[in-house]
Amino acid sequence: MGKVSKLFSPVDGLLMPIDEVPDLVFSKKVMGDGFGVEPTSGQVVAPASGRVSILADTKHAIGICTDDGAELLIHLGIDTVEMNGKPFEIDTKKDAKVKAGDIIASMDLDKIKIAGKKATVVVAITNTDEVVDKLEIKAVGKVHRGDEAATLTLKETQSAAAPKGKAPKNENKDAKTARLILQKVGGRQNIKSLIHCITRLRFYLKDDQMPNDDAVRSIPGVIDVARAGGQYQVVIGQTVGDVYDEAIKQLSNSYADPEKATQAVAKTTTEANKSLGFWDKIKHGASSLIGIITGSMMPVIGLLAASGMLKGIMTILTTWGGVSTTSQTYVIINAMGDATFYFLPILVGFTAAQKLGSNPVVVAIIGSFLIYPSLVSIYASGKFSYSILGMGINSNFLGIPIHIPQYTYSIFPMIFAAWMASKIEPWIKKWMPVVLRMIFTPLVEIFLVGITVLVIVGPIITLISTGISNALQWLLNLSLPLSGMIIGGLYQVLVIFGLHWAVIPIISAQLSVPGGHSVLNGIVSVTMIAQGAGALVVWMKTRHNKNLKGLSASAAISAFCGITEPAMYGVNLKYGRVFLTSSIGAAIGGLVNGLLGVDMYGFTGSLIGFPSFASSSNPSTLLNFWIVSAVTVVAASLLTYFFGYKEEDSLKAKMAPKKRHLG
């Protein structure tokens, strides 16, 4: 049985169970279990000892994290948020240590009554599911502030002051580092709050002399410790965000201060950037961008891999299994395989918003807007009024001519949308009245971000794509071996930014004529094989990271089936050198492809697409395809094996980051 503690009435009045509170959010225990008191006087005291974790701007709500780990919300009145703090006075401050019975606020009951609001004071345990085993309300009826109102039996896992003892089953590396650090700094009872910057965990401790620096330094995953600015700082390095997330899981959300953490990250990032030279800043910016892209893609990598394998199976069945592409079975299963890719803007919008600190649902809706059928049909119709700089004008907005491009399968526009939304939303909240925010904040945000992406970002990407398309056509006419090497090395970079659509029209034009063939599509096929080979080497060399081993195997298979996203975003970009060595391998394969003049007679590429290289008029092409594929696999594999990946890399990689603000 867990520890039993007491909760006290915060006000004089009539005690009631929470299911009798005149508000559905509380009575249905949406905010957690607890109790209510109908007040007869306005002075408010702390219902338990702990640390003040929340002070609402409108003064109607106070949060206290108790010494036992329960997170209490003291809500003063029903719907009193609309009164903008007028009937309340706060007598404590954020992070203050309070004891049960200490005065923390006062409320003017008459003002609340005149406003037509109820003054019911609610005490809700917001982390009920995590910490509460049983809550027993004392006899309902008249109580004085400071009287015992309820007894709280904690779950056994919450009875200890800090995570300690035997390691939990299947504990990952970051969770272990976090657990050991929390033990060595004195546990939950010695921690006021925890934030992080770009390399360090920053603890605010009650007694900063308690930790033994040498003992903390000896923890696996810890680089060093420091004491500065009233903080106990534990230097972790690049994986600090992952260790921080695990630490907060083991403590509770009340110990986190996202606002201070964001400020610390921004401050340390700015300070770090000041000392960087020009090229270092370029390198840092590129690294940050890749981090954002991979972090946004990681949550959907499993879906992409599964969808890619399903599409590969369907290719096998339609090529050799006798399944017709017009059959209903094919249509249904093909829809399963295509769905993740078609709706990728929605999925990436959601995950990118989680990473960059914007509203995931709002950004997902922006993704839905961009692939709305009527907008997709505008692009699909192929009808253009005229062209500007090679970009076809196919629509207008408020009378302004615009170009609506293809957004299905796209990634980069949604990452931009998530970034812009993270900047727009705080700005909207600065001037939007609280009572209007729920409806009008998403309305304004969707309109501004959606129109910016549609009218500005999309056309910019199209203009860049058009320029790339013209350059590729010129390069192909100049020299096949040279174009094979350059396109092979850079094509997957175009995929990252959604610029690979510049290549599709060229391939389509080459294949659409009778007897059509495409050397360019053969080069693109080489890049898929190379990325798969890079992921395959990661699978071969990884022994201690089971998650990575499983992911890299499925990602390699998916790439060999023509779907490179799982390999790129789940493995190769995450371990940057792997993407580089794979791309160099693709450049070598592209060079050989150009020298042999390998032609493709269909769209399906990579290893599974070998039937696309068969031709009665050019029988040597299929053999040359296998030669090019072998060269590509060997080149990409050897480069990755010796220069691109080490087993130690898997122990330092960053997982998909949780919600953070950028900049």
Question: Could you explain how this protein is built, in words?
Answer:
- Residues 158-165 and 653-663 have low confidence and may be disordered.
- The chain has 4 domains: 4-154, Glucose Permease (Domain IIA), CATH 2.70.70; 173-261, 2-Layer Sandwich (Gyrase A, domain 2); 287-436, no CATH class; 478-651, no CATH class.
- The relative contact order is 0.07.
- Helix 11 (344-356) packs antiparallel against helix 12 (360-370).
- It starts with a strand and ends in a 19-residue tail after the last helix.
- The chain is of the alpha+beta class and 663 residues long.
- An 8-stranded antiparallel sheet has the order 9-5-6-7-11-3-2-13. A 4-stranded antiparallel sheet has the order 15-16-18-17.
- It has 22 helices and 22 strands.
- This is PTS beta-glucoside transporter subunit IIABC.
- It holds the Pfam family PTS_EIIC.
- InterPro entries: Dup_hybrid_motif, Glu_permease_IIB, PTrfase_EIIB_Cys, PTS_EIIA_1_perm, PTS_EIIC, PTS_EIIC_1, PTS_IIB_1, PTS_Sugar-Specific_Components.
Short description:
It is built from 22 helices and 22 strands. With 663 residues, the chain is an alpha+beta fold. The two termini are 46 Å apart.
Report the β-strand fraction as a percent range. Answer: 15-25%
Q: How is the biggest beta sheet arranged?
A: 8 strands, antiparallel
Low-confidence stretches: 158-165, 653-663
Shape: elongated
Computed Rg: 30 Å
Strand arrangement across the biggest beta sheet: 9-5-6-7-11-3-2-13
| Number of contiguous helices | 22
> How would you state the average pLDDT, rounded?
83
Distance between the termini: 46 Å
Strand tally, please?
A: 22
- The total number of structural domains is 4
User: What helical percentage do the residues reach?
Assistant: 40-55%
The SS-based structural class is alpha+beta
Pfam families: PTS_EIIA_1 (PF00358), PTS_EIIB (PF00367), PTS_EIIC (PF02378)
Organism: Caproicibacterium lactatifermentans
Subcellular location: Cell membrane
Protein name: PTS beta-glucoside transporter subunit IIABC
